[in-house]
Amino acid sequence: MPKITFIEFVGTAHEVDVPAGGSLMEAAVSNNVPGIDADCGGACACATCHVFVNEAWIDKVGERGEMEQSMLDFAENVRTTSRLSCQIALTDELDGLIVDMPEAQH
């Protein structure tokens, strides 16, 4: 069961244990992590689940897909480590993953 740490823009950390198999966005929503609105419900049709993946984890979460990149074009403060959390599948290998949330989602 992966343990994920979500860090709000103001620095508040939310550590959650979630079963593998779902998405990072689902983990945030089911644990009431503030800042992950997920307005489209995980359909990659908005950018309200935007996160910054910690540099140490960027290679482990996989690359952005074309549709995800298109959605990130509409997000604020996009970085090289930006991802939509609905597009990151949780696996046991992501145990310890750390993501930060942008100021726009505070």
Note down, in words, how this protein is organized.
The protein is of the alpha+beta class and 106 residues long. The chain has one domain: Ubiquitin-like (UB roll) (Roll). Helix content is 13%, strand content 19%. The protein is built from two helices and five strands, in the order ββαβαββ. The chain has a five-stranded mixed beta sheet with strand order 2-1-5-3-4. A hairpin with a 5-residue loop joins β1 and β2. The longest helix is centred in the first third of the chain and has 7 residues. The chain is globular, with a radius of gyration of 12 Å.
What is the strand content? 15-25%
Biggest sheet strand order reads 2-1-5-3-4
Using only CA atoms, what is the Rg?
A: 12 Å
CATH architecture: Roll
- How many separate structural domains? 1
What would you call the structural class?
alpha+beta
CATH fold annotation: Ubiquitin-like (UB roll)
Please give the alpha-carbon distance between the first and last residues.
27 Å
Q: What are the secondary-structure elements, in order, as H or E?
A: EEHEHEE
Short structural summary:
With 106 residues, this protein is of the alpha+beta class.
Q: What are the main properties of this structure?
A:
single chain; 106 residues; alpha+beta; Ubiquitin-like (UB roll); globular
List the helices and strands and how they pair.
Layout: E1 3-7, E2 13-17, H1 24-30, E3 50-53, H2 66-72, E4 82-84, E5 98-100
Parallel strand pairs: 1-5
Antiparallel strand pairs: 1-2, 3-4, 3-5
